[in-house]
């Protein structure tokens, strides 16, 4: 009897101040295009309030950094927009990789990335696990 199991390729975690992200965006509004895909920016803009948008941005930023760590790459090795965080507002978060992030995942044999995000007390945190199928 065989069973399909996943083996861990890498894990990553990141935590960031929501205020820090909000301040960066207010000082450099153009940073949004560099950090987030157009679909992510649409989801962020649908926030119920400015504070909700800031929480969404910070959570997605933390998720992107956690995914980079799970893929074993540092800042600059993949573009932030190459890691797209989908879901939110009642949907579980998931990741779609593009460009160099997708190439790195393929090189590692990554079958998928599991993602968990949260925010509280002015902080956003994300945890990512990259895995591959094993027999």
Describe this structure in words.
This protein is an alpha+beta fold. It has a single domain (5-134), classed as Ribosomal Protein L22, Chain A, CATH 3.90.470. The chain has five helices and five strands, in the order βααααββαββ. The chain has helices spanning 18-27, 31-35, 38-45, 50-70, 99-108; strands at residues 5-17, 83-86, 94-97, 112-120, 123-134. A three-stranded antiparallel sheet has the order 1-5-4. Strand 4 (112-120) and strand 5 (123-134) form a beta hairpin. The longest helix is centred in the middle third of the chain and has 21 residues, at 50-70. It is globular and about 45 Å long. It starts with a strand and ends with a strand. The model has no long low-confidence stretch (mean pLDDT 91).
Outline the fold blueprint.
Blueprint: E1 5-17, H1 18-27, H2 31-35, H3 38-45, H4 50-70, E2 83-86, E3 94-97, H5 99-108, E4 112-120, E5 123-134
Antiparallel strand pairs: 1-5, 2-3, 4-5
How many separate structural domains? 1
Shape: globular
Helix count from the secondary structure assignment: 5
Percent of residues in helices comes to 40-55%
Low-confidence residue ranges: none
- Beta strand %: 25-35%
What is CATH's topology name?
Ribosomal Protein L22, Chain A
Give the strand tally.
5
Rg is 15 Å
Q: CATH superfamily membership, which one? A: 4'-phosphopantetheinyl transferase domain
The chain-level structural class is: alpha+beta
The CATH class is Alpha Beta
Please report the distance between the alpha carbons of the first and last residues. 11 Å
Secondary-structure element pattern, one letter each: EHHHHEEHEE
How would a textbook summarize the main sheet? 3 strands, antiparallel
Order of neighbouring strands in the sheet with most strands: 1-5-4
CATH architecture classification name: Alpha-Beta Complex
Average of per-residue pLDDT values: 91
């Amino acid at each position: 009897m065989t069973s399909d199991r996943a083996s861990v390729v890498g894990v990553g975690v990141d935590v960031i101040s929501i205020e820090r992200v909000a301040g960066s965006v207010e000082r450099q509004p153009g940073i949004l295009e560099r950090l987030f895909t157009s679909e992510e920016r649409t989801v962020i803009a649908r926030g119920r309030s400015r504070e909700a948008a800031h929480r969404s941005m910070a959570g997605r930023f933390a998720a992107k950094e956690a995914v980079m760590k799970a893929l074993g790459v540092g800042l600059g090795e993949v573009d932030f927009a190459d890691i797209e965080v989908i879901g939110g507002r009642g949907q579980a978060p998931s990741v779609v990789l593009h460009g160099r992030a997708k190439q790195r995942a393929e090189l590692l044999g990554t079958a998928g990335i599991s993602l968990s995000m949260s925010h509280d007390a002015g902080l956003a945190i994300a945890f990512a696990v990259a895995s591959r199928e094993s027999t």
